[in-house]
tRNA (guanine-N(7)-)-methyltransferase
Amino acid sequence: MRLRHKPWALDYMKEQSSIYIADPSTLKGNWSSEFKNTNPIFIEVGSGKGAFITGMAKQYPDVNFIAIELFESVAVAIVQKMVEEPLENVRVLTVDAKDLRDFFKKGEVARVYLNFSDPWPKSRHAKRRLTYKTFLATYEEILPKNGQIHFKTDNRKLFESSLMTMSAYGMTFDWMSLDLHANEPENNVRTEYEERFSALGQPIYRMEATYTN
């Protein structure tokens, strides 16, 4: 899908300073001051237009959620959603996932969600996958001991390669489904892509993986 550039997006988001954090590095180690509580923080890396993160925030008001989206022209949709329907437990960042250690200290993030990440199907692009070992190392640096990654995708090859990289990294798998919607948990919050692919009859793959080091 071609990304439509929105030159006004950054200025608009900066005007919503209670939602969009323009310089998250200033909050490293002190996100509790931003949320004004000590509730656990869950982040979604690659939040798209925000259906998942806003849905989760409504379902779990005692958890703080941070949407991580690289592209301002995409992230602005999340901010717009929250202007229309405010959620005190959500913040939005436009940063690169490889730099997460610059914004969170060890253990400051309680869980990482990866939903419908770009599969980067060519072998030469494997290092760009959000489940590649270098990204796994980055998440480990901001999660507590035995922290978890929750992962969903419609792409079987990405799912299989992610199983391999996580297993090679020493992670264990606590829960897994090769067809999530065949027996969908009541608390499952669907993403925009999830709705689309499910409507086409595409199975949705999901797993929960835990760091064991």
Q: What stands out?
A: The CA atoms of residues 119 and 158 lie 6 Å apart. The chain has a mean pLDDT of 95. DSSP finds seven helices and seven strands in the chain. The first helix runs from residue 9 to 15.
